[in-house]
Amino acid sequence: MMDNLDMNRIPEHIAIIMDGNGRWATVRGKERSYGHQAGVETVRRITSECTRLGVKYLTLYTFSTENWNRPADEVAALMGLVLTSLEDEIFMKNNVRFRVIGDLKRLPQQVQDKLQETMDHTAKNDSMTMVVALSYSSRWEILNATKKMVKEALESGSTYEQIEDKLTEENFEKHLETSFMPDPELLIRTGGELRISNYLLWQIAYSELYFCDTFWPDFNEEDLHKAIASYQNRQRRFGKTEAQVEEEEK
Question: Whose CB among 39, 84, 102, 233 lies 3.0–4.6 Å from 134's, allowing a Cys bridge?
């Protein structure tokens, strides 16, 4: 499959919903936490491969705000896994910068400290940026961005007309958690589910979607290549007609 990829059309930004860890463990008669541990190994492999392919941003949906409703022991295990999985090797070996998006105030202080330490230590890495969506939901992000815009407007003493002029997509995007990176061209979801699950709803307006049945712990480099090949076989029109796009590509 690697031979079929156009290396000049590798997506700059790939977002992944890493689904199926718990089910992968269940079918093996293991605790769900065992699946999450196995999923970390997949993160390492896919991060390395994305770096090798020239992907510039890899955003991983790790823990949603809805996941706080899971059993307490599973949440605790996931938080512990965050602490132990943020190793320097995966970032320094691949020259990867680490960033995190989400409602981080809800995380245990020890986890917050580890996240900040990893971001600080990898800040100068420039081969790729891995972004972890942790305690994240898109509805929370959009509402939070709206609050920030309203607060700024009120503090500036703007009139209604002035506020209305500032309510543009460009200004709104500056208040999103993802303001430091481009929107994803490709969104991958593993595990067989066919939904977005409150993930990057604003940002994926024109992303290509790819769903596969493979549980995340079994997702490998070949599966990644298949997703990218599917992306490359599509025509990205952004509202234009097929004829218009073909004319522009001449």
Answer: 102
